[in-house]
TrEMBL record, chains A, B:
It comes from Ignicoccus islandicus DSM 13165. The lineage of its organism: Archaea, Thermoproteota, Thermoprotei, Desulfurococcales, Desulfurococcaceae. L-aspartate binds at residues 181, 224, 381, 385. This is Aspartate--tRNA(Asp/Asn) ligase. PROSITE patterns: AA_TRNA_LIGASE_II. InterPro entries: Aa-tRNA-synt_II (IPR004364), aa-tRNA-synth_II (IPR006195), aa-tRNA-synth_II/BPL/LPL (IPR045864), Asp-tRNA_synthase_2 (IPR004523), Asp/Asn-tRNA-synth_IIb (IPR002312), NA-bd_OB-fold (IPR012340), NA-bd_OB_tRNA (IPR004365).
Length: 455, 455
């Protein structure tokens, strides 16, 4: 689209446009002078182009003087200044895309100070803290930008796939009266003089919506006061959530693995430019992604000399070991695997209880639940949900939650809640396997964690 | 997709499937008995179907007895209970879609209590407060559900259009250190022991992103402690935001009017079923949507006997009168019109100041800004933004804001902020003209306002 300051984006300039006068705009990526010629490399988000300013031989003295001044002016523009350029397209077989611009006029739209607080050429490596503190210009670095471009491709691919299954996009409330799982991780809000919280997840609301809209999804922020400063936790993250009426955990696992595959395939199809910038090839995701039960996982760990208390959750060291074994045995799909049928007591109250089983000499109630992991990292978690009020109340009590404070949610189970199932997935977490980033913060525009409230 | 509890959605059952045994599931919409036959109307989100249970003439005594019991059982199921049905598809020319199901088995998945707190058939009109307090089952009413289905179609259409212009979807932080415009409408958050706020808009962050990603959009919640209890205000609303580098207010107005047109056209194309339920036809949106300047608007009002202090904002009564006049003169597009070039002092600090003009005998600084209205309702607001630090600081001071508390934002204007422009639009507000709802709350799944924190 042609806008006030430019007629073309840089990538739209092609050799076929030779001789055409164009107006482009962007950042001064580099500038140098060789004799009487100024070479300016202009950058916009689509690419780079060289603009050459030279004093013409066959022109009036006046024009020669003007261009001489211009060459001088161009040479003095600080890097990262914003400029608009008028010039003529010229074929140049030596140029990266076969074209350059013969510059005629330049307007400095915003002059940059120097030095910059962060090198944006990407040549100088910077610590992640420095990068995040200087995020607005860090995002001019191709590899920083690439990740956010891929995040955008991811949300597009997720939605496209869910639309094919007739899901409805919903927006559930983020200011809520009581927490999904309670606990110290809730972020308090002062709401019209009342104490409230920020939603840790759309869990209870998306469940309620299955009793009318049936298939719902949401991609929205969620909040946890994460006290652990790890590369995989954000205090504000983007949660991808689905919930389906008349489905169980096996049904929604199928949706989930297709979502992951669709994102991966969209990256290869639409995001190859950005993957190249990152020099990363996401793993191929063949379906079905292998499932192993909690019991099998527990036994593999035991055989490896790691004995977990039966019924307890696995930590990162356990998942590292487990995924190593699974990868060796070819029981992952590009590093992805499901652990299914978790011990019921280790899962949230709304998780459907399953059969009893003996694990490590203990009788354990299982549940219709799963985690999707990639290597040691939990990407998504889901389950069949309880749809009977009495069962819900029992599970709440067993976890020290007071059913009365959930009455606003429980009462609808009296009026036709369907069986349902769903999952939640951390969008930034999914970017770890699919973009190769070492830290989920790099998949957030301006990450929020324990220490970071600005920019 | 076939799931645990059903093989087909109701709308997928066609006369061509005659004789096929199917498993379907849904809610008991109505049930009656005529002689020895039970007629159950089953509902899922795709439609209704009649399931007939009758005692067969040519069957074993055992089977006859079983079906007799079944007929009795079916007749006693409370309305809105959730059931799964097995039966055989039968052509029935008298049935609405030409098919019914000869029921063979029924499983009650969740029995509903009666009476229901709200009639869901839609036959009994309920007050909006009652509806919102019973939102999980209110959304089973076709006209309630229709609005949320159309909201989902709207977000899809908005994104589709913006993708064609190469916009990147972003997620900006919702917990922020200082407000965009300050003021009493900020919702306080207690963030890791620090005082912070919920974002009223992604304004400052989306601006910063234009210096790298250039074209960005976001569809996300935003919060305002709205003390005014009107049909058009929510404390938590969905804000559709775009921001474009190298563009001015005229460029982004073009994007905005195309967004509105695309949503309207998508409703007619993909949402006709839901529009029929609402018995509403959205107005045709022909482009360009007419623009009138603040000065012209001011003069029209004066001619109508309404004299506003020159430079002041218009209120709802003024917009009602103004839009009446414009509609009479054919100067709206289906009720939509832009008011452009607002007095600079009446706009937020980041708005680009324009030329001086005489209005009502006063010299007034205008700005490169606009509102998109529909009749008396403001749908969207936008402008060219200031991209020079010194100008921003001046405008802040003029509004009693302290530039130091915006240093985290201002400092990036030293390092190559491009000229940029954008707008924000209330998604639920847009639904007023396009779905005919009288209250924006009806376009939220679980609205949040002064009084409403649950459900």
């Amino acid at each position: 689209m042609k806008t006030k300051y430019r007629e073309f984006k840089i990538s739209e300039i092609t050799p076929e446009m030779e001789g055409k006068e164009v107006k482009i705009a962007g950042w001064v990526h580099s500038v140098r002078r060789v004799g009487k010629i100024a070479f300016l490399v202009l950058r916009d988000y689509t690419g780079l182009i060289q603009v050459t300013f030279r004093v013409p031989k066959d022109a009036s003295d006046e024009e020669k003087e003007r261009m001489k001044e211009l060459v001088k002016k161009v040479t003095q523009i600080p890097l990262e200044s914003v400029v608009a350029v008028k010039g003529v397209v010229r074929r140049d077989p030596r140029a990266p895309r076969g074209v350059e611009i013969a510059g005629k006029e330049i307007e400095i739209l915003n002059e940059a100070k120097s030095p910059l607080p962060l090198d944006v050429s990407g040549k100088v490596d910077a610590h992640i803290d420095t990068r995040l503190s200087n995020r607005p210009i860090d995002l001019r670095r191709p590899e920083s930008q690439a990740v956010l471009r891929l995040v955008s491709i991811a949300t597009k691919a997720i939605r496209s796939y869910l639309y094919t299954l007739d899901f409805t996009e919903v927006f559930t409330p983020k200011i809520i009266a009581s927490g999904t799982e309670g606990g110290a991780q809730m972020v308090p809000v002062f709401y019209f003089g009342k104490n409230a919280f920020l939603a840790q997840s759309p869990q209870l609301y998306k469940e309620l919506l299955t009793s009318s809209l049936e298939y719902v999804f949401e991609i929205a922020p969620a909040w946890r006061h994460e006290e652990s400063d790890t590369p995989y936790h954000l205090a504000e993250f983007i949660s991808v959530d689905i919930e389906m009426a008349f489905a169980d955990y096996e049904d929604v696992m199928k949706v989930l693995e297709n979502v992951v595959k669709n994102v991966r395939d969209a990256f290869v199809r639409e995001g190859s430019k950005w993957l190249e910038v990152l020099n990363y090839q996401p793993p191929e995701v063949n379906l079905p992604i292998p499932r192993i039960s909690y019991k099998e996982a527990w036994e593999i760990l035991k055989a490896e000399g790691i004995e977990i208390e039966p019924g307890e959750d696995f930590g990162t060291p356990e998942l590292r070991k487990l995924s190593e074994v699974l990868e060796k045995e070819g029981k992952t799909s590009g590093g992805f695997y499901f652990i299914v049928e978790w011990p019921a007591d280790a899962r949230p109250f709304y998780t459907k209880r399953g059969r009893k089983e003996e694990i490590g000499g203990k009788e354990i109630y299982l549940s219709e639940s799963f985690d999707l992991n990639w290597k040691h990292l939990e990407i998504s978690s889901g389950s069949t949900r309880i749809h009977k009020r009495a069962e819900l109340e029992e599970e709440m009590k067993a976890r020290g939650l007071n059913p009365q404070s959930f009455e606003w949610y429980l009462k609808w189970f009296d009026y036709g809640m369907p069986p349902h199932a769903g999952w939640g997935m951390g969008l930034q977490r999914l970017m770890v396997p699919l973009t190769g980033i070492p830290n989920v913060r790099l998949a957030a525009s301006f990450p929020r964690d324990m220490k970071r409230l600005v920019p």
